[in-house]
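Exercise 7. Given the components listed, write out the predicted structure of the assembled complex. Treat all entries as one system.
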Amino acid sequence: MPSAEQISQTVRSYLEALSKGSAEDAAGLYADDATVEDPVGGEVHIGHHAILGFYGNLAGSTLEPELVTLRALGREAAFLWRLVVRNGDSGGVRIEIISVMTFDEDGKIASMKAYWSKDDITPL
Amino acid sequence: MPSAEQISQTVRSYLEALSKGSAEDAAGLYADDATVEDPVGGEVHIGHHAILGFYGNLAGSTLEPELVTLRALGREAAFLWRLVVRNGDSGGVRIEIISVMTFDEDGKIASMKAYWSKDDITPL
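Answer.
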């Protein structure tokens, strides 16, 4: 069972993968049969191929994630974070997100749900 | 299916029930077969009787909840909030909590998970 420290570190690695724009790094943190629901209520992406595709869609944007506050408990993490998304010269937006992850025995992300809607988006 | 507005209102009613110190009001927001895991990783309270008992344990403390930020999506809510707990003249603490709720068809709370640990407690 992963420790709270390992889980916290994986959350940080996740945000780092986003800031590097690396779909491979982000998807690599997930278990093979993991699920991603981002935003909650939208499509659920299941398995490595679908999750890699989901993060691949972010290519072309510059992402600046910032962790606000994190809880790591048992095999779960919940965190509030901000994501600044910049698209070339056309400005950008800041999204305030609450994310919840569960983890498997090996410390891989088993599921991720991101709670945000258009109400949480601020133009920059 | 409950609307985002209904779900947001139920979260507010929940915090109001805590501020009134009413275990009945808090437990009354839950479905009969609901589950409460507070904090995550601890005991899971299942069903009305157990949930009423859980909130009954808070009697004797003065609770001052404050909603920081709320997401209501589909049949779920995630919110960051602060809870000041005062025990007579012996001071008190502030706990910063991320809570996640799911809701049933009728808008009752089907499950609640509260993410916090001793690291999120500040003495006042």
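Discussion: Chain A has a mean pLDDT of 95. The helical segments of chain A are 4-20, 23-28, 48-56.
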